[in-house]
C-alpha cells in the first residue's frame, strides 16, 4: 500500500467513490475542503456504512470502559488535563487498537473535525517502512529483531491483546503499539523492549521531525489503516472547552473489501 493521499470534496457521490478507491490503496487519506449541504455527521455515516459496519468506539473517559456509541469525541477540556483525549499536549506515536482484539477483521479508523484549535493540534503519521529504515540507519538491528520476535501483552480496562510490536503480511509492515497500554504482566524482555522502543521513537524519530502533520479544518477528516502506520498528535493552544474537537469512528470493513 502507498502511504498518503489528499482528496478534496466534490459532490457527495463522487467523494464517496473516490474515497472508497483511495482506502483500498493508501494507508492515510486526508479528506479536505468540506462543501456539502448535509450535516457533517450524516456524510461520515453515509460513507462508513457504504463500506462496512460501525464499531462501537466510545469509551468512558475515566475508566476506559466501552460504551454503546459509534463515535468517541476527542475534545479539549481544561478541567481534565491528565487524559490525552481531553488535554492539549502532544500525544506520542501509537496504534489505536493496541489493546483491541479484532481477529481476522479488517478495520479503518478515522477522525473528522468539528472544531480546530487556535494553534497547533495536527494529527501526525509515520509510515512503517520509514521506521524500519530509521532503525537500520541507526544500527539498531538488535532492536528491530526484538520488535519482530518478542510478544508484548497490551491491556486497557480489561481488554487484552498479545502481539509483536512489528510484524509483516503480504501487503507490508504491521504495528501494534501504545506505550501507555502495556500490561504490567509481561516478561522482563518485553518490558525492556517497550522502554527501548519508546525511547527510540521519542528521541530519534520525533526529534528528527520525520512525522507527517495533517491539520484538519472543520468538516475535514483523516482516514487511516491503524495497524499499517503509527499516528500521534501535536500539542495545541486552545482557550475554551471543546475548542478543538475531533470525532473518531471505526469501520469494520466488509470481508470482500480488498486492500492493495
Automatic annotation (TrEMBL):
InterPro entries: TauD-like_sf, TauD/TfdA-like
Pfam family, one: TauD
Keyword Isomerase: no
GO molecular function: 2-oxoglutarate-dependent dioxygenase activity
Residues annotated as domain TauD/TfdA-like: 13-244
Keywords: Oxidoreductase
Name the UniProt record assigns to this protein: TauD/TfdA-like domain-containing protein
Organism (species): Aquirufa nivalisilvae
Amino acid at each position: 500500500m502507498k502511504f498518503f493521499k489528499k482528496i478534496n470534496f466534490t459532490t457527495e457521490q463522487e467523494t464517496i467513490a473516490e474515497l472508497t478507491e483511495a482506502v483500498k490503496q493508501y494507508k492515510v487519506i486526508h479528506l479536505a475542503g468540506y462543501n456539502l449541504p448535509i450535516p457533517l455527521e450524516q456524510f461520515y455515516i453515509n460513507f462508513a456504512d457504504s463500506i462496512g459496519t460501525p464499531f462501537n468506539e466510545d469509551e468512558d473517559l475515566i475508566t476506559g470502559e466501552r460504551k454503546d456509541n459509534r463515535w468517541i469525541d476527542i475534545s479539549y477540556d481544561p478541567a481534565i488535563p491528565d487524559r490525552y483525549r481531553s488535554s492539549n499536549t502532544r500525544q506520542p506515536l501509537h496504534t489505536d487498537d493496541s489493546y483491541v482484539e479484532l481477529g481476522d477483521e479488517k478495520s479503518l479508523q478515522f477522525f473528522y473535525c468539528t472544531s480546530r484549535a487556535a494553534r497547533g493540534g495536527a494529527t501526525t503519521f509515520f509510515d512503517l517502512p520509514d521506521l524500519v529504515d530509521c532503525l537500520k540507519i541507526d544500527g539498531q538491528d538488535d532492536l528491530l529483531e526484538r520488535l519482530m520476535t518478542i510478544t508484548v501483552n497490551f491491556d486497557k480496562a480489561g481488554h487484552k491483546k498479545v502481539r509483536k510490536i512489528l510484524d509483516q503480511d503480504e501487503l507490508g509492515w504491521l504495528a501494534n503499539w501504545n506505550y501507555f497500554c502495556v500490561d504490567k504482566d509481561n516478561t522482563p524482555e518485553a518490558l525492556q523492549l517497550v522502554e527501548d522502543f519508546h525511547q527510540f521513537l521519542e528521541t530519534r524519530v520525533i526529534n528528527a521531525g520525520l512525522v507527517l502533520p495533517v491539520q484538519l479544518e472543520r468538516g475535514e477528516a483523516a482516514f487511516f489503516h491503524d495497524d499499517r502506520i503509527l499516528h500521534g498528535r501535536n500539542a495545541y493552544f486552545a482557550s475554551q472547552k471543546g475548542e478543538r474537537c475531533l470525532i473518531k469512528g471505526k469501520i469494520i470493513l466488509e470481508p470482500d473489501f480488498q486492500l492493495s
